[in-house]
Design brief:
About 30% of the residues lie in helices and about 15% in strands. By secondary structure, the chain is α+β, with helices and mostly antiparallel strands. It has one domain (about 55-190). It has a four-stranded antiparallel sheet with strand order 1-2-3-4.
């Protein structure tokens, strides 16, 4: 018995188109994908760092309330507003009061220099920045949880570049999630 094997057609005259991609096309595709992914990643990373107008408004309102407190206290612990006496350049202490150093709460701040306690420069007994929620509570602001992501730093320096116009410069920096910072400068002259 003989096996019948089917005969194969002659394919020598036909051309076949290759399917798939070459190694060069694959590498170029991966490079292009990497560039696109890098661009998308950088875009989204920059979005989170941009200062949202809502948070900017809250930071400004917090700075405004704090500036009002700076203006409400005496220029210096040696001033005597009741007697209408001001300290002169030599008699001003330019350091936080002992009351504020012992308990650095806003209710214990009696002079501009007490705000130096919330500075990060370790000068004049500075203890470092204050949490936004804690400061909002001390300022009696409504909805203190809105300020949870903020940290506030206040540094006080005596500016005596012009002896005729000596003032204390209060730098207020409000940071949001250790990212963007809004800075304000307040000049406090020796009025009372």
């Amino acid at each position: 018995m003989a096996l019948n094997t089917p005969s194969l057609p002659n394919l020598s005259g036909l051309t076949f188109k290759q399917a798939g991609i070459s190694l060069l096309e694959f590498v170029l595709g991966l490079a292009l994908l990497a560039i696109v992914m890098l661009g998308v990643t950088l875009f989204y990373l920059s979005q989170s760092r941009q200062l949202d107008p809502v948070f900017q408004f809250r930071a400004v309102s917090l700075a405004e309330a704090l500036a009002e407190q700076v203006l409400a206290v005496k220029y210096d612990v040696n001033n005597n507003p009741a007697a209408q006496e001001r300290c002169n350049a030599g008699a001003c202490s330019n350091s936080p009061s002992t009351q504020a150093i012992a308990n650095p709460k806003l209710t214990n701040f009696i002079a501009v220099d007490d705000f130096q306690l919330w500075c990060n420069n370790s000068e004049n007994g500075a203890k470092g920045d204050i949490d936004g929620e804690k400061l909002a509570a001390e300022l009696n602001l409504p909805q203190i949880q809105l300020y949870r992501r903020f940290t506030i730093e206040t540094c006080v320096a005596l500016n005596d570049d012009d002896p005729a116009n000596i003032f204390k410069q209060v730098d207020i920096k409000i940071s949001i999630d250790q990212g963007d910072t809004l800075s304000f400068i307040l000049h406090r002259y020796n009025i009372r």
